[in-house]
Amino acid sequence: MKAEPEIDHSGMEFGIYTLADLRSDPHTGISISARQRLNEIIEAAKMADEAGLDVFGVGEHHRLDYAVSSPQMVLSSISQVTKRIKLTSAATIFNTVDPVRLFEDFATLDLLSNGRAEIMAGRGAYIESFPLFGYNLDNCDDLFEENIHLFRELSAHERVTWTGRFRSEFLDAEISPRPVQKSIPLWIGVQESLESAARAGRFGTGLALVVFEGDPIRFKPLVDRYRLSAYEAGHAPADLKVGVTGHVYIAETTQKARDEFYPYHINYWGNDISRADFERLSGDETALFVGSSQQIIEKILRQYELFGHQRFMAQLDMGGMPFHKVAENIERLATEIAPAVRKAIQK
């Protein structure tokens, strides 16, 4: 019988990500333009970089209620006004993307940012990208699998020969440009699917857990399946990375955080969430990171005990939240939460 795979418990990166939703402020009813939303995203990235956070992510949607359809374009702009922060999609919809064009775009981003580009692959919460780009929704899982495989080939080799089901074949094609990094780090986002967690392990990519609500212990089987699958595929434990992504709102006290965040939470998810339901969703033992800095620290450390993860990514700007609130949360995450968590982990 094989021994259990080892777990890497060294350090933790902290970052933020945005999905760039365009919703009106629930208090004022004021909506901002896509142009202003993009400007605020770039400003948030600058603040995160200056505050010492490690990663900034931008999501992909193809709807009028979101401002970003091309994360690589936004991240390229961010690369020119930041110095050290890693730049990742959050996530790229891999079922409906041309892997060759995607690799070229992110290799270019890697060159522009001097080796800071990453990709998080996801299957998307919406389906409009399938008809938009001419793909059949029935092939959703097979498209994802094949595109991940092709992207990894493109990243590993300067010349590639390819034959697949969904993309035209090519013979000994030059794959240009080449990134600064030996290969562009790739993560697979997983919310509930054990099969997706196993796929991430089999490919040896990072695992990005989408942790929004409930007891975080319910996500542990995903991490266990990921590590076991990676071990069985022969990937070195030191090369495996687990990240947690979640909704975060921080205030001086937990009650103040809940009072302030509730209107944005229901504005983002829908008005069918009662205040009593929200109180349960944001309770001490849950995965929703709403509270005082100390409570957020305790929640992250509890999850660290469960997952042994190396990255924590916070979605701060949702539901029409004004930018000054986002800025306050970036500052608290960088100066109050990240140092305390890192210190506790190193003990």
From TrEMBL:
Domain annotation Luciferase-like: ranges: 12-305
Pfam families tied to this protein: Bac_luciferase
Gene Ontology CC entries for this record: cytosol
The entry's keywords: Monooxygenase, Oxidoreductase
GO MF: monooxygenase activity; oxidoreductase activity, acting on paired donors, with incorporation or reduction of molecular oxygen
Recorded superkingdom: Bacteria
Official protein name in the record: Luciferase
Lineage summary: Bacteria, Bacillati, Bacillota, Bacilli, Bacillales
